[in-house]
Amino acid sequence: KCSDSRTTVKTLASIRTGFDCACTTEIQLVQSLRRHVNSCKQVSQIKYVADNGIQMMTFDSEVELMKFARAHPKAKLVLCVATDDSKAVCHLSVKFGTRVKTSRLLLEWAKELNIDVIGVSFHMENVCTDPETFMQAVSDVCYVFDMVAEVYFHMYLLDVGGGFLRSEDVVFELIPSGM
User: Fold this and answer.
1) Rounded distance between C-alpha atoms, residue 138 and residue 64, angstroms
2) Residue 22 has what pLDDT?
3) CA-CA distance, 8 to 10, in Å (whole number)?
């Protein structure tokens, strides 16, 4: 998302870096490399990625699942989960992600529609300065992974988006212990 340089993208692709695409232009740039991650997609965008061999995409609602069932039933989906971003500057969970308590319903519906869910994602807004908030988000996502076993999906992907600003108050070493 931060560089549209073809040279940079090719270099990153050569070392098998994943890409996080949110619009058709970005998709075209990394053509069929990884994943389209805008939670609310037009059917035409879903068809475009399907026609171009892109399998991995995100979803966070029943409406999106229905679009996939019609336009890209072979997609490998990643469930986007909303996190507690009350201590963040920008509250992305108001717009993106399903609540943990509604995750089971979405997973069950995906199973009923025969759509493969391969992972869970969450996004900590880039100016989050609270490691405890991050660890709570990881805990919430672990709960979703536990649900998955009951719904019979084989999930193998955890996408941790966002990050922390460099700060004397944030001890980054605390984060991995929470994971």
Assistant:
1) 24
2) 64
3) 5
Q: What is the pLDDT of residues 130-161, one digit of tens each?
A: 667 777 777 888 888 888 777 777 888 887 77
Q: Which residues lie below 8 Å from residue 8, measured CB to CB, with a gap of 6+?
A: none
**Structure tokens belonging to residue 121:** 């994602």
Q: How many CA atoms lie within 13 A of 124 on its CB side?
A: 21
Count of residues in the chain: 179
Task: Give the pLDDT confidence score for residue 65 in this predicted structure.
Answer: 94
Q: Pick one of 3.40.50.1460, 3.40.50.300, 3.20.20.10, 3.30.460.10 as the CATH number of 54-178.
A: 3.20.20.10
